[in-house]
Design a protein that fits this description.
2 copies of one chain form a homodimer. With 145 residues, chain A is mainly alpha-helical. Chain A has 6 helices and 2 strands. Chain A binds a DNA duplex (30 and 30 nucleotides) through helix 3.
Chain lengths: 145, 145
DNA sequence: GTTATTGTAATTATTGACATTACAACAAAA
DNA sequence: TTTTGTTGTAATGTCAATAATTACAATAAC
């Protein structure tokens, strides 16, 4: 299975909020229009980002905003906020290896640290990219430089 | 979503084949016993590993074996063989960003290379671990050192 | 108060994972 | 050559996650 599109959606949402913050009120309907997903899905993602303190959402009056510098929000923050993997574990281990078998009894101990290393490598790379990078590259493309 | 347990299952299967190769005929039923998953699932995984040239399976007479040195089979080889992610793409991108929106039109171009970097970081780490590492650590635990 | 919007529940469709039953194809031993 | 054990594969079922959609109460500004 792939990592849920909630993640790329969330990044798209951040890019929109930043790009359009001065021109429009960036509502869930507006964001649904740009991402082409249902407004309710957008609101769920905004809810998760809000719970992580990464966005502010104006109830009633409407509109989302980003309450801190883009350089302080990494793709890892977003990845964690939208909870793409259960328990934060990238690999799904088969549930009940047979403990009566020498291999089944030890497979977890053998594999766990290695899988963790792989996961950390991925998360480290995610944490090295921030929304400021996204903003810069998006602006460059939009301005057609 | 997490990466399918087919991956950890496959590694478990390799460990079993190696550990028990001299004592038992390692059949799909035997492997099903150690992993605690259905023998048909084991056969499907063995089929994928066989297609990738990572195992040999004796039709009729039964039993699986590993046709090359453990040090030449990496976790990345296994990961690719069992096809845990579609198209080899770790991240599922939302399908139809609105091309009438400056952000929707450019989000792919902005994100693709960054996501690829993250994916490569993970795959590089996977490729640095081989079945020889698994064999060594498994043996150490089984022998109680 | 009217209006626009958010937060959330409920329902549905679709997809992948994994389990399970069943059986033909196959290979080796009796 | 029949018997036995095994593989490969199809068909079916269950379960969980994703995502779309409808509906509506709670909220905030005008």
């Amino acid at each position: 299975m792939q990592i849920s599109s909630r993640f790329t959606l969330a990044v798209h949402i951040f890019a929109c909020i930043d790009v359009f913050k001065d021109e429009y009120k960036v509502t869930s309907d507006f964001l649904a229009g740009s991402t082409n997903v249902n407004p309710v899905i957008v609101r769920k993602i905004l809810g998760q980002l809000k719970a992580a303190g990464l966005v502010e959402v104006a109830r009633g009056s409407g509109g989302a905003s980003i309450p801190k510098p883009l350089s302080e929000i990494s793709l890892l923050d977003i990845y964690n906020a939208v909870a793409c993997v259960e328990n934060g574990e990238l690999f799904h281990f088969h549930e009940n290896p047979n403990s009566d078998c020498p291999v089944g009894r030890n497979i977890h101990a053998v594999l766990d640290d290695k899988l963790m290393r792989v996961q950390k490598a991925m998360e480290t790379e995610l944490s090295s990219i921030t929304l400021e990078d996204i903003r810069r590259d998006t602006k460059e493309l939009i301005d057609g430089k």
